Amino acid sequence: MVKNSFIPVISQEKKEENPGSIEFQVFNFTNKIRRLTSHLELHRKDYLSQRGLRKILGKRQRLLSYLSKKNGIRYKNLINQLDIR
């Protein structure tokens, strides 16, 4: 498992912009999801990590649905940048 595997799509300026923004939160959740997914490929029976992954997936899903209702353009840009769907 690589500890510092970040998505290079969002620039440093965007990260420093607002850590409470929806894009930043989705970015962090996506990093956590990718780290947990690679962990679970090695440790298939780690049920606590599976539960944590499902919780993070739900949080990201709720944030993305909120963003799609409020601002569809920002939602589409974020989805394309992170290659989520």
UniProtKB/TrEMBL annotation:
GO terms for molecular function: structural constituent of ribosome. InterPro entries: Ribosomal_uS15 (IPR000589), Ribosomal_uS15_bac-type (IPR005290), uS15_NS1_RNA-bd_sf (IPR009068). One of its GO terms (biological process) is translation. It holds the Pfam family Ribosomal_S15. One of its GO terms (cellular component) is ribonucleoprotein complex. Keywords: Chloroplast, Plastid, Ribonucleoprotein, Ribosomal protein. CDD domains: Ribosomal_S15p_S13e. Belongs to the universal ribosomal protein uS15 family. This is 30S ribosomal protein S15. The gene is rps15.
